[in-house]
Amino acid sequence: MDKIEGTVFSTFKLKASSPTPLYRQLQQLIREAVELGNIAVNDAIPAERDIAAELGISRVTVRKAVRELVDEGLLVQRQGAGTFVKGRMEMPMSKLTGFTEEMAKRGMTPEVKWLDRSVGIASPEEAMALNISPGTEVSRLARIRYGGDKPVAVEYTTVPRMFLPTPNLVSLSLYDILTTTNHRPYRALQRLRAELFSSEMAGLLGLDELSVTLYIERRSFLYDGRAVEFTRSYYRGDSYDFVAELQIDLQPNQYSNKAEQ
Question: N or C end of the chain: smaller count of CB under 10 Å?
Answer without folding.
Answer: C
